[in-house]
Specification:
It holds the Pfam family PSCyt1. By secondary structure, the protein is α+β, with helices and mostly antiparallel strands. It has 16 helices and 25 strands. The chain has a seven-stranded mixed beta sheet.
């Protein structure tokens, strides 16, 4: 009796139901399933498998898409088998993809890729079983199924190459950044991470539970703990992994990926070593800094000017308590000038600027009472590019004779009521690139006409606050140093010239009503902390920005450490506390004393003539490196052999990972005639639950004690 032969088609048809069941189980239970090693190998073969079924299924579908092809003899012999074979390989590919998705992939692109892949598999299978019934009716479904295959590939590319991979060549190039505008992380570090790291560590593909496409992900770290420890090269996983031998499994990037260049490795190392700031500007770095040197070669800041620089002596002469003149960036011959102090302003002082008429490219006269002064004086500056007159006292006659300055690129006239004649003058300034006209009383029609007359100008009419209220960016604090001997000058600024900056130096939180309004540079003569916020009508006040300032104090006759710092962070031992050298925002710089296991305890011996009214402690806070505020501060004084607890305080603890920063704890000494003072700082013994290193011991870092 002859055996019946089982055809290959029958085997493949039955296998389809196996793939249906297996894929359905994985689709529902992949997150809780334990994947055996042999299936993990299959999962990682997903990129190798996927091209074959695409060719087979699309080849079979072409017979229904092309007119009359399904009536040909070739169709009856080839098309059904191509579909059947392609559907089977689609099922295997879908199963491999579901297994691979368990290895750290997530996000919207993965969701759509999975379901489009399943529809391709299911659709191809059903198409095969129903293709003999109503062939003419299958032309449109075949087109839709082919479109689904294309979308599956698109979302798959989004997972492996990023969501903008397909259309990236069509996107407009980002505007060039100047050195004055460049930020260390955004313009030096992030491009490296984007090109060499994000393909494996971003939304949709989070290997090792580490996301590198967002700042929060870098700060949080991955399953191995903190990825970046600011200032700590030895313990930062980023620096460890990029320096591992190429053959090591944990080397980053993997050896099958494009490797970092030596220059890119140097940038990442210098960034972490200098504090791993996410908002520091390149221009705030010392010129000799490695990152500044690299940026100066990379960015086009530096618009070249063909005029000579003004002498330092002349700049010093022009700088007064109501006027500030600076180069726009270090060593630039071009100058920017701002006036402060409305009461001290005299329009006649503008004649002083004739001596820098060639070099002046930016002039800020916000809120200044210009009286009856003609604005024709602006024509004296042939290279003036930026002019700010926000809320300046100008009458209608002055504005209606506003000069047409051909070199001017940016003009700010916010807070000034503009007449139609003035608008006509402004509309003739065709070289303007930016125009700020907040609160100028213009109608919708006037705004539309001005936009039409200046189509190439970016015009900002401000935010009316009718629908949404947005927060302002915080102001910036500029100070030459933190530690000073006699006095220190600090400047506050904001990218929107018309906002009001309120500040405090007495420890209180600045508000929009009672805190002093910033008008001119602030001079301080004692230690403290400046806190500042920006406010404007129709906006939410900005977040607070702060900076400490420290007056070098009296040096005790004798001082010593009663507990020893960690050997890795012992600076110059007790000499560190009174060396008058402010430590950098980098705990590995050798200028800090670090304590973790034991509290910091220092003893200071004083002479009778040393009358002390204030004691301040300079600290470093860097939560990403486990450096927190002390949990308790104790200051004990001795007089006539008897001790008194002067202060026992629990400083406010951190509630999130912040930027690396210097802080100052100041304490008043009510009874100044102490023979000896003891200072104790207790480090946090268990990091809070929100921290990546929850439960671990924290650190206290100290570099100066100031007695005044």
């Amino acid at each position: 009796m002859a055996r019946s032969r089982i055809s290959p088609s029958a085997i493949l048809e039955n296998l389809l139901f196996v793939w249906f069941g297996f894929s359905a189980i994985l689709l529902v239970g992949i997150e809780i399933a334990s994947i055996p090693p042999f299936l993990q190998v299959l999962g990682r073969a997903h990129p190798l498998l996927l091209h074959f079924p695409i060719v087979l299924v699309m080849g079979g579908l072409l017979f229904w898409i092309l007119p009359k092809s399904y009536k040909s003899e070739a169709y009856t012999q080839i098309a059904p088998f191509l579909l059947l074979l392609g559907a089977n390989f689609s099922g295997i590919t879908v199963i491999a993809g579901l297994v691979l998705s368990s290895e750290g992939y997530e996000g919207d692109a993965l969701f759509w890729h999975q379901w489009a892949g399943m529809i391709t598999f299911w659709g191809g299978s059903f198409f095969y079983f129903f293709q003999k019934r109503k062939q003419k009716a299958l032309q449109i479904p075949s087109i839709l199924l082919m479109l689904c295959i294309v979308l599956t590939g698109h979302w798959g590319a989004a997972i492996t190459h990023g969501e903008d991979f397909l259309l990236a060549p069509l996107k407009t190039a980002e505007p060039e950044v100047t050195l004055a505008e460049a930020e260390v992380f955004e313009h030096l570090v992030r491009p490296i991470l984007k090109s060499k790291c994000e393909s494996c560590h971003r939304d949709g593909k989070v290997k090792g539970e580490l996301r590198m496409d967002i700042v929060e992900g870098l700060q949080k770290g991955g399953k191995s703990g903190p990825f970046i420890l600011a200032g700590d090269l030895d313990n930062s996983l980023l620096i460890q992994r990029i320096n591992l031998p190429l053959e090591e499994e944990e080397h980053m990037p993997p050896k099958n990926k494009t490797q970092l260049t030596e220059e890119e490795m140097n940038i990442l190392t210098a960034w972490v070593n200098s504090g791993a700031s996410f908002d520091q500007k390149v221009a705030d770095l010392p010129e000799e800094h490695e990152l500044f040197q690299f940026a100066s070669k990379t960015f086009d800041s530096k618009q070249e000017y063909d005029f000579d620089a003004v002498s330092d002596e002349k700049l010093e002469e022009l700088n007064t308590f109501f006027r500030k003149v600076n180069p726009i960036y270090p060593e630039s011959p071009a100058l920017e000038l701002s006036y402060f102090g409305i009461a001290a302003f005299d329009p006649k002082s503008l004649s002083d600027l004739q001596e820098i008429r060639t070099q002046l490219i930016s002039l800020n006269l916000d809120k200044m009472p210009l009286g009856n002064a003609s604005l024709d004086f602006l024509n004296d500056f042939p290279n003036l590019e930026k002019l700010s007159l926000n809320f300046a006292e100008l009458d209608e006659d002055q504005l209606e004779r506003f000069p047409n300055i051909e070199s001017l690129k940016e003009l700010s006239l916010s807070g000034i009521q503009l007449s139609q004649v003035t608008l006509e003058r402004i509309s003739g300034m065709k070289n303007l690139e930016k125009l700020f006209l907040w609160q100028t009383g213009l109608s919708a029609e006037q705004k539309a006409n001005l936009r039409a007359q200046l189509p190439k100008t970016e015009i900002d009419f401000g935010f009316d606050g009718s629908d949404v209220i947005l927060p302002l960016n915080p102001p910036r604090i500029k100070q030459e140093r933190i530690l000073f001997s006699e006095s220190l000058e600090m400047e506050l600024s904001h990218p929107i010239p018309s906002v009001e900056i309120r500040y405090s130096i007495d420890g209180t939180e600045p508000d929009s009503l009672s805190s002093p309004a910033y008008e001119s540079p602030i001079t301080v003569t004692s230690s403290g902390k400046i806190r500042a916020k920006a406010f404007a009508k129709g906006w939410i006040g900005s977040q607070e920005v702060s900076s400490v300032f420290m007056k070098s104090g009296i040096k005790p006759t004798e001082y010593r450490l009663l507990t020893q710092p960690n050997p890795r962070y012992q600076g110059d031992l007790e000499e560190t506390l009174f060396d008058q050298i402010k430590g950098e925002n980098n705990h590995t710089s050798g200028e800090w004393l670090g304590y973790s296991e034991d509290p910091f305890v220092a003893e200071l011996m004083l002479k009778e003539s040393q009358s002390i009214s204030e004691l301040a402690i300079s600290l470093l806070y860097n939560e990403s490196a486990y450096i927190f505020p002390p949990t308790r501060v104790e200051i004990i004084g001795w007089k006539n052999g008897k001790s008194t607890i002067i202060h026992s305080e629990k400083p406010e603890q951190s509630e999130k990972i912040g930027e690396i920063r210097s802080e100052l704890l100041s304490y008043s000494l009510k009874d100044a005639d102490f023979e000896k003072i003891q200072v104790k700082l207790y480090p946090i013994q268990s990091l809070p639950p929100w921290h990546p290193g929850a439960g671990a011991k924290g650190w206290v870092f100290v570099d100066e004690i100031l007695l005044n």
